[in-house]
Specification:
Helix content: 25-40%
Structural class: alpha+beta
Radius of gyration: 18 Å
Strand content: 15-25%
Number of helices: 7
Shape: globular
Number of domains: 1
CATH architecture: 4-Layer Sandwich
Largest sheet: 6 strands, mixed
Strand order of the largest sheet: 3-4-2-1-14-13
Number of strands: 14
Distance between the termini: 7 Å
Length: 275
């Protein structure tokens, strides 16, 4: 089975490009992030015509995650147990614990069983800035996912689980083009890196690094400052796999070609081949 993950930065703007990628690459299951649409706006027919089923969760023009599969989609979950929400706006940042508004549940996690694998498409919160409430939300979100994913393995050590997507964390200094420019910024802070690494303690293996360890191999390039031709990139798209699934991974590819041409996303697909 071929499993891929891709932050497409608007599925409606890139539906035809995504279908072309699926057909060209022979991908069986694609986890998508940043669809940027409500469920009723998703271009289901485009993918169904190509022979794929779709599960999607999206509440607005922000966030949104999907699974696109030609090997089945079963037991869909539009969040994981304990997934925190985010109280938005200045009022939320200034509120005391007693009068803080209820946090808003965001469309950032979608799980389903596809071809016998429990696949989670994940769009981890950005964090924005170290002093921003969104940063604390990001750390809480990652910890909640770690705790819940540890429970999955405790319940079934032989579970086939893939947590894939845009993690918005660069675990190594070489995962950004110039670490000196990230001093005091999100994505590379020690707490974020520790929260990311904690999934290993929960029993998972980050298989994209195992199979593609090359330094300065990026998955994201900003649209600004000619970042792609200059290779001013970041590696922030990863796969944490359960032990049973990690043993099936035979190779990983980062498809740089999808960052080229008109209408490209700022991320590229990360592709896993499973025996």
């Amino acid at each position: 089975m071929r499993l891929a993950s891709w932050n497409v930065n608007s599925i409606r703007a890139r539906a035809d490009r995504v279908v072309a990628f699926l057909e060209r690459s022979g991908t069986d299951v694609l986890a998508v992030q940043e669809t940027k649409c409500r469920d009723d706006q998703f271009p289901y027919l485009t993918f169904e015509a190509a022979g794929y089923e779709v599960a999607h969760v999206g509440f607005s023009q922000w966030n949104g995650v999907a699974l696109i599969s030609r090997v089945g989609i079963e037991d869909v979950a539009t969040s994981f147990a304990g997934q925190p929400g985010f109280a938005k706006g200045a009022a939320a940042a200034e509120a005391t614990a007693e009068d803080a508004p209820d946090p808003v549940h965001e469309a950032r996690a979608l799980g389903a069983t596809c071809g016998g694998v429990r696949v989670w498409s994940l769009y981890v919160p950005n964090g924005r800035a170290l002093a921003d409430p969104h940063y604390a939300y990001k750390l809480a979100w990652l910890e909640a996912l770690r705790a819940e994913s540890a429970r999955w393995l405790a319940d079934d050590p032989a579970a086939q689980v893939a947590m894939v997507g845009d993690w918005n964390v660069a675990p190594l200094d070489t995962d950004v083009w110039n670490i000196s420019l990230f001093d005091g910024a999100t994505h590379v802070s020690a707490p974020e890196r520790a929260a990311f690494a904690a999934f290993a303690g929960a029993g998972y293996r980050e298989v994209s690094r195992e199979h593609l360890p090359a330094e300065r191999t990026y998955t994201y390039w900003d649209y600004k400052q000619l970042s792609f031709p200059r290779n001013y990139g970041m590696r922030i798209d990863f796969t944490w796999a359960s032990p049973a699934l990690a043993g099936r991974v035979t190779g990983v590819t980062i498809d740089r070609e999808e960052r080229k041409g008109k209408g490209a996303s700022d991320h590229v697909p990360v592709i896993l081949d499973l025996a």
